[in-house]
Structures are given as structure tokens and as C-alpha cells.
Amino acid sequence: MDNPEIFVVMILYMCVVIGIGVYFYKKSQKSSENYFLGGRSLGPWVAAMSAEASDMSGWLLMGLPGVAYWCGLADAFWTAIGLAIGTYVNWLIVAKRLRNYSQVAGNSITIPDFFSNRFKEKKKVLLAISAIFILIFFTVYASSCFVTVGKLFNTLFGFDYHLMLIVGAVFVVAYTLIGGFLAESISDFMQAMIMIMALVAMIVVGVIKAGGFDVVIENAKSIDGFLSLGEIANPVVGENGEQIVENGTALFGKAGNYGFLNMISMLAWGLGYFGVPQVLLRFMAIRKSSDIKRSRVIATVWCVISLAAAVFIGIIGRTLLPVDEALNSASKAESILIVMSTEYLPLIVAGLIMAGILAATISSSDSYLLIASSSVSVNIFKGIIKKDNASEKQVMWLARIVLVVIALIGIIIAWNENSVIFNLVSFAWAGFGATFGPIMLFSLFWKRTTRTGAIAGMVSGAVTVFVWKLVFKQFLAPSIPVFGLYELLPAFIVSCIAIVVGSLLSKKPDKEITEEFEKAKTGDFLEVSEQI
């Protein structure tokens, strides 16, 4: 086996993660609220850091540096700017209102629960639709995490990609079954600390090994468009998608234009934050709304530092490893942090960073699986099929079964070892952002929003994502550039229009709904005494 020291460190680290799950096992099994929302007991640090870690996960440590390494600054920079702005605005305007409103609206413990309770549904159409879309998009999200695990072990130890894919999925399912939301949140907090330390440490070591900051910048400038925000570097690739090397130099063609539409597309990533359940659930689970201001500062600072570091690691990588068989395609380039760590850091330190990537990925994927399984067991089974007599035991058992099924589908999606993590995440992110983002904002801030408008917005947003991605981008974008936009932006706009039109054409909300809306604007409500 290659790098046995790293393997040992990773195993020890994962034992700690398992220990966290075991520690919280008893508390998580008390009720479905404890299992899926942690009893609303998160403190400001855990809420903030776990929200960001579950959101970014292995994508931050592999996907974003890989994009910067492969085609330069533009794509990665504008994406990072959009995400940083989205993080801050989401914590600023959504967090407090959702924390209060979710408790006022029937003490909702899932996002579909909240939407259904918000509009006082009798026929649970909105509940069912939102639960189904969560199931679909989180299955794609989980597959991106399995790809990360497969690439990590294949790059580090030469293990078979497909075998590691399966092992990673089995571990995730087992861990999720044990600990639930609390274990996942605490381990995410730990992952967030490891992630930011790993990124900063790699930058410092990378710059030193490269011969200084000036050397890194000069090398990047030598590649046409690599450091430009208005152009994108163009690696010359063969039929197999691998970059062509001549005389020991990786070839780049003339830089491509990176225009206004491209910039808007990447900035639109920030819109996704308003609809991603793994972040919204942290808002619902925080102990009291007065803690949110501190959480906002913590989350934003972590996000800005981590995103900037991840992008710069890709730039440094082009100086340190301009030609490397392990990095010579868009897919393989996502292993840049792994290769740099094992090449330039002491093995024990590299092992800790690799363990951080693995644990962050697993912890995030268990978050996705947990939310997806809750959409079936809590929202569809308990909320619709057996709404009068579903027992806690039945709900918990169904959640476990659904976890396994989702993991199996995720493995199938991730089976292609040339899968690009960035692409998988971008599609799922667009799905959540357009399906849930607009209706979340309208539900929280527009009293006139109706159930009809909510359904129209949710369905139109999701359908637009699929149509734009699979039809418009594929067949129309080459001749009509506007159809090359990231699907999140047009889908978000379509959803907003549908919500407004659907709401204005339907009957005004009942008095009970409007009174609840007003109540959610004020103060804290039931606050638990125990905080983590």
C-alpha cells in the first residue's frame, strides 16, 4: 500500500467521528425531532460551522481547487464571490425569520413540514411535492460525495475506485443510522475547523515550495487567460479528455472569452443558499434567534477565508505541478489538494488533511441522506400516508430503509469514475436553489403568498432546471449564448414570477395564516435549555 502513515491517521480520525455518533446515539433516538433536528439545541458556533461544512464539504477541498487548477481564476473566482455573498445575505435575512416561523408554524422539523404548515394544508400536495424534489436532488448530492471518496482513496492508495465508492457509501449509511442530526452537526463543526486549517496550511507551504508569491503569480501570468477575470484558460486536450504535453510542458490554447453572461452565471450560485435544506435546517435548529448574529459573523468569515484559500491552491498547483499524470484532465484535476499534500507536507500532517477531506465528505453526505430520508419517512409516510397513526418506531425504521435505497441510487450515479464533482454539485445546487429558494423568501417576507403560488413556484423552478440543463444548454446554447447561463438563474426568476402570478390569481390567505405570519416577525419562542 502507498502512504501507510496517511492511512493510519485517516483511520484514527474516522474512529473519532464514529465516537461522536455513538455518543449522541441515545439522545438522537428519543424522537424524530431529536433525530432530524437535534431538539433545536445548536449553539452559535456549532450552527454556523456545521452549516458551512455540510454545505461545502469535499467540494470545497476538491471541486473548487480543481476548477482553478484546470482553467484558471475566472470560473472559480466568480463562483466563490457568489457563494460568499449568498452566505452572508442568507444568514442576514433568512435565518432569524425561519428560526421563529418554523416553530410558530406547527413546530416544523423539516423543510417540507414548514411549507405545508405555513400554508395550513389540508391536502398535503405541497408537502409531497417538496419531499419528492428533496429526495431527487439530495440523491445527486450524495452521489457527488461518493465520487469524492472514490477519488480520494484511488489517488492516495491506488485502491479500486468502485470498491471505495461502495465502502464509503456503507460507512455513511452506518454512521447516519447511529447518530442523526446532532452527531452530524458536531462532526461537521470539527470538519469545518480541519478544513480551514488544511487550506491555509497548504497555501503557506505551497507558496514556500514554489519559491514565493511572485513566482506563483508570474507562472500563472504566463498561461494565456489564467489570471484574468474576463477570460478563461483553455487546456489543449486529446480525444480522451487529457491535457496534451509537449517537451515537458502542458499545452494551453488561446484563452476563451469570459463575458458578462458567464460572470452572472457564476454569481448566481449565491442564490442557491436560499433553498438548500442542509443550511436552512441549521437556522431552524439554532437554540435561540438572538444567537444568529454571532453565527452570521462566524459563518461569513469562515466562508470567505476558505473559498479564497481553495481558489488560490489551484493557482499554486499550476506552478508546483504543471505536468502530472494524476491531474491531466478536468476530472483528475480535482485531486490537486490531495497530490500537493502528499507531495509537500509531512505524512502525518497530510494524513490529517486527507482525513479531513474524507470526514467532511462523509459528514456532508450523511446530512444529505438524513434530510432525504426524512422527506419520505416524516413528510410522505407520517404526513400523508399514515398521518393519524404513524408511530415513532415506524417513522424511524422507514427512515433507515430509505437511507439504504438512496445510497444505492447514489452509487449508481457515481459509478463513472470520470464524474466531475463540480458538475454534479452544480446541478443539485441549482435544483435546490430554484425549487425552494424563491418560495422560502416569499413565504417568509410576503404575506400575500398563497399555497397555489407556492406550488406553482416550486414546480416551475424545478422543471426549468431540468429543461434548461438538459435541453436548452445542450441544443440551443452553441448558437444562442444566453441559453448557456447557469440553470439556477433563469429557473429562480421563473419560479419568482410563478409565485407572484399564482398568488395574485388565487384567494387571499386566511386570517389564521396572516396572524401567524405577523407573529413570526417578533422575538424568540420556546427556547431549549440545553445548548451544544
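the 2nd protein, sequnce then structure:
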Amino acid sequence: MLIPFILEKAISLYADKEAVVCGEKRFTYREFYERVAGLSCFLYSQGIRQGDRIAILHQNSHEFLEAYYAVASLGAILNPLNFRLSAKELAVILNDSGAKIILSASRFSGTVKELKGRDSGLQKVLWTGSDKKTGTFESFDYEEAIKHKYDSMPPAPGLSDEETAHLYYTSGTTGKPKGVMLSHKNVCTHALAAIAELHLTDKDRWIHAAPLFHLADAWATFAITWVGGKHVLVPDFSPAEVLKLIEKEKITITNMIPTMLNMLVNTKEAESTDFSSLRVILSGGAPIAPEVVRRIMNAFGCDYIQTYGMTETSPYLTVSVLKENLRQLPEEKQFVYKARTGRPFLGVLLKVVRDDGTEVEPNDKEVGEIIVKGDIVTCGYWNRPEETAAAIRNGWLYTGDMAVVDNEGYVNIVDRKKDMIITGGENVYSVEVENVLYSHPAVLETMVIGVPDQKWGEAVKAAVVLKDGQTATEDELIKYCREHIAAYKTPKSIDFMKDLPRTGSGKLYKKALKDFYASHKK
């Protein structure tokens, strides 16, 4: 099944139903389809064909939704970009993906201008918004480009559902970004599974509060459209604005990262907001403490589902939806299951295994690695056959996440095998941050870890040993990092030490450092 089928299905049943709300703009499914067709035809006129890559640098907007469908209709590949990244980081991604055209909001014109001086490979920019004075690439105005109305999309002959539709970049273990390829089959299978698991219907109204460049939210582009639901978009996360829209647009369901949910329940406007339209809140993209779950359920007065997933899996791998026999338990025992990582998602087979590949005992005690397979799992990484082979073995994707599993089949993640930090829903690899710190002339040794943080879930923290005779302040090193990497990757705090913990063989011992901060609660 192909992604364009989803929109065609919605048009066949819900053409005159309101589909998208974005600020003051409101579009029916028919109007939305016409805009998608206009964008598709424009891209076709610019020589975009099957397999070509189109990048998008944009806040949440109706244009983002339109791009997801228009690019797929051509058999081309959409490359959503994290707008928090620096121009240097974006240039590496663009060069790797080979995108020649970027769809960008005018608010990022400074970043796009800076890309001109870097080896990005970009040739053309399709601008939304009013300020487009960059003079750097061949430029087009979005509304002008799509203004011609079309009854159908350009042809995409011979398109298979196994072909890549999306290219999401995540940091590799070496700090180098790698592109996760998601096919039409991955996206469509996940959407259908989500519809079944979450009981989505044309009554549902979804607010896109988490960023659309991230799969914590982007998957709803397809599932909500398939059932004829309504998309409500906010360009940037503002607790007060989100709360206002939940009440005004009578939102029924959404997914947010724990940081966002925690901010919402602690915003004073939450006390006076009418949440009666909400039927369920989903949390995903980062770990969440049970006490935070309890606050969310109390504040919103609706059901709660915890989710766990990866970019590589479209994204959901588990949901904390209760099996029927668990619904007979007392409320407090039900809560224990709701606050766990969850049971396997409908579109995936999941195991928790030992190092030898055998499954751990389902006793909620023995720890193993989560491995998965199914039609929602990526076929691999863009131009990275070795990393693909390392991650996918005998048809199973090795997630690197360590978990326990109980006799009901519910898993709970206890640690991450790799030293990945999840801060505010964003993945940060410690090696990338360490490499920047090591490039500072005063730094001798460093280790970067994640420490618990009430606001961000985890905060990036660095421990640094300075070279003899060298000096540096915490503010100086933080500023230095911010100049080289995205702000969310930059350490929130830096401690200076005489020595870093080591193993018996002399290697730096990161677990000991984590244990030290855990015991001292710093």
C-alpha cells in the first residue's frame, strides 16, 4: 500500500469535512488535496522524480502536512530536518541525503543563507512566509508555486510500497548522523496498526504540538488522515497556546514528549482549561516517571497510554494499553501497567533476549536487550550497509534498549545499552558532545552522561579534566559547545575533576560516573 492511497481514501469519504486547522487557516479535505496536488505538480515541473530527495526545514504547519503527501505522490523521498540543528550540522545531513531542493520557512532564512557557504549540495529553495531575502539559491514562493489547481497528482509509474518514502536522520554512535529509511509499507502499516490500537475514528481531533520533523508526532499525519480526523497545528510549543487550542478545537487525542506534558500540567492555565473533549493522552519520545504519569492523568482527567518506539520502527514498538484481563484489576494495579513501557505494538514482534539470543525469563527481573521485527521496521540506514548489518541480524532489529518483561508480556526499559541521552525528547549521543569538548585546547579528558532532570527528563552533564597549566570556566565551555553543536546537545552543567573513574584496564568508566551522580544526587 502507498502513502497517496491514504489521502485518496479520506477524499472519497470526507471531501467536505474540515481536515486542517493552522492558525487562522482552515481547509477541508478537498482543499487540502488540491494544495497537495499543486505542490506535487510544482515539484514535478522542477524535475523531481521517483527516488529524488526533498528536504524540509519548517515548524509545524499545514505546509509540512502537504509536503508529506506531495513528495510521496511522486515516489520521491522527504527528508525532514531538525530546525534546532546548526547550519554546519544540517549541511552534513543534506550532503549525505543528496537533496537538491529544500522547502523552508522564511524564519530559517539565516540558516539557509549560511548553508550556501557549506558543502550542502542544495540548489533551490521553496519558501513559505514573507521574508525570503537570502539571494543565495534559486528561490520560489510556496503559494505562487501551488496556486494552479489540479484534479490529480503527476504520474509515478511502477512505484512499489517497498521503496523509501522518508529519510529521518539520527545521530550515530560515533556522532555522525545516519539516515533511517522508512518505506511506504512501513508508514502505512504503522498507521493502520495505530488506528486499531488507539481506536481512531473521524471523530478524533489531533493537535500537532510535538515537532513534525520527529516521529513522536509525524506518524499521526497518516493515521488521522486515514480515518478522516482533524489536524490542528501549533508552530511552536507554548503551554498556554496548546491548552487554549485543546479547549477551543475540542482535541480528543494527541502524543507529546514527557517534558511537554510536565510543562502543561504545571502551567497555571491548566487549572481553568476545559479538558472534557480529551479521551486519551499519549506520552512518548523519552522516559517518564510514574509520578509524572499520575499528575498527567489527574490534570487531564482522561485515559493515558505510554508509548515506546524508535525512528527505525515508524515509531511505535510498545503501548501501555491494557489487555482485557488486566482491566479487571483494581485501579491502582491497572495504573502500574499503564505507567510501564508497555506491551508489543500491533505491527511488531518483540523479544527481550540475552547476549546469546535466547529469551530472558518473563519474571520482571532478568534484563535483556529488546529486539523486534515486522513491517514497521526499517530496511536499514541510507548508504550505511555496515551499520545496517550491525543493527539488523537475521531479520531482527537490535534496539540497544535493555528491559525486563513480565508474564503478561509487558516490558519495562531499565537502561540503554548505548550511552544515548534523551533530553526533552531529543536524542543526544555522548560521544558527539565529548568530541567537541576534546577539541577545546584546555580539555584533557571528558565524559558526558545524562542525569535526571525534572524539566527535561535527562540533562546533558559533562565531567572535565583540564590540562596542566590550563584554565577554563563552566560558562566558557558551555558557550564553546553551543558554537559547534545544537543547543539541546550542549551540556547544561559541567563539573571539573582531578581524575575520571577508570576500569582495571585503564579505560574511562562511564557507569561509575553515573553511579557517583546518582548517589550524590547532583
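The chain has three domains: 3-11+25-183+210-219, 237-418, 421-520. The first helix runs from residue 3 to 14.
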